[in-house]
Amino acid sequence: MTDTIYAPATAAGRAAVAVIRVSGPASGEAVRALIGGLPKPRQATLRTLRHDGVAIDDALVLWFQGPASYTGEDAAEFHVHGGRAVVEALLSALSALGLRLAEPGEFTRRAFQHGKLDLAQAEAVGDLIDAETEGQRRQALGQLGGALGRRYDGWRDLLVQALAMLEAAVDFPDEELPEDVAARARPGLETLAVEIDAALADVARGRRVRDGFRIALVGAPNAGKSTLLNALAERDAAIVTATPGTTRDVIEVPLVLGGYKALLADTAGIRETADDIEAEGVRRARAWADEADLRLWVVDAAAFHVKQSEHHAIVRAGDWLVVNKIDLVEPDAVEAIRVQTETLGLHVVSLSAREQGAGPIRAALTEHVVEALSGAEFPAATRIRHAERLGEARAYLQRALAEVDDVELAAEDVRLASRALSRITGRIDPEDVLDRVFSSFCIGK
Ligand code: GDP
């Protein structure tokens, strides 16, 4: 027998309204116990909630008869006044009625189990709750609408068609089938390979929209990295001092640029050092900078010689050279630095972070992030889990294409490719994978 669960759906603390949800077979009984009857399904009804003859609160009660509910089970919502004592009293009453407090993500897990959502949609519910930027919201909403699931279903259809042809060739080798029946599976598989390749190439974009576009500030101590970071963050996130090597670890600051989340990090003045603690900071900083989507190499306009700097080994073509402290130099100094660094293929910007703040660089940075993260379509994958399954499907497909002449082997690989895709939407995933997906949710979702 399935437990009937309850949990507050709204955040803890003082608020005008709190919503408490109930789901499971005993939901109707619980509603009856609290208000003396069942209201019309899916209609807000004002009632006094009572337990043991004592009034708890006047509440809006919503009753959902399964399967027409979020979870697909009988379910109810109580909208009560959002005071702590009111919520506590209702939760105690539900517990006394034999209901159990829900685990994190348990409501959404039940929705998944009853076929209300696929796994990618369930993940999107979590992403939507966590969304802080427009980019995150749009991406999560697209995924919640089933855009991902539909795309995978289309791909699985292609695989099933190919499989049908291969199996026909396996099962009826001597019948009067057209000779090239197995070869006819090829175009569909090739089309799919191209589409999966495109999706894989787009994985980084989906993950960056969700987790943030990573921008690393690199450069010698005292170049002005912390000053620029603080100016971009519009607050004092890093301590600005004139002592070299003060910023020891990686400081990550979240920014919103053009509606997208970005993470900006000051990377501890990457350089040789004898100090162990500083060396660890340098190692982390180097790794962060290496994996970042963009490196801003901040240099002091008054003290720059590319030959004396080790930072040119860290930056790549397309990264930015930020010539700082231009208030200290003649205008032609910037041009001289540009010439010195020309072969590195960097985009050069110059400013005085102390005098001008981040103004001269913010707009360009925003444009860069928007261009990198916006795409015509929703990304096919927003998580490593998705990318791994896509990669697997692609590898099986590759093998199937290589061995189309051996129809039995090819058919088996097509089947495996299809299974890998199914796992993204959770059609055949084992319990432990589901546990992982849902445990990241909050209670009440
Ligand atoms: P970091 O070690 O690269 O993080 O450098 P900081 O941001 O701590 O800056 C080092 C010193 O340079 C501080 O004294 C800053 O006030 C100064 N500084 C930063 N930007 C500028 C600038 O645009 N012009 C001038 N003249 N000084 C600056």
TrEMBL record:
GO terms for molecular function: GTP binding; GTPase activity; metal ion binding. Its cofactor is K(+). Coiled coil: none annotated. Its main location: cytoplasm. The keyword Magnesium applies. Keywords: Cytoplasm, GTP-binding, Hydrolase, Magnesium, Metal-binding, Nucleotide-binding, Potassium, tRNA processing. It comes from the Bacteria. SUPFAM superfamilies: P-loop containing nucleoside triphosphate hydrolases, TrmE connector domain. It is found in: Cytoplasm. Residues 212-370 form the TrmE-type G domain. Belongs to the TRAFAC class TrmE-Era-EngA-EngB-Septin-like GTPase superfamily. TrmE GTPase family. Exhibits a very high intrinsic GTPase hydrolysis rate. Involved in the addition of a carboxymethylaminomethyl (cmnm) group at the wobble position (U34) of certain tRNAs, forming tRNA-cmnm(5)s(2)U34. PANTHER family: TRNA MODIFICATION GTPASE GTPBP3, TRNA MODIFICATION GTPASE GTPBP3, MITOCHONDRIAL. This is tRNA modification GTPase MnmE. The gene is mnmE.
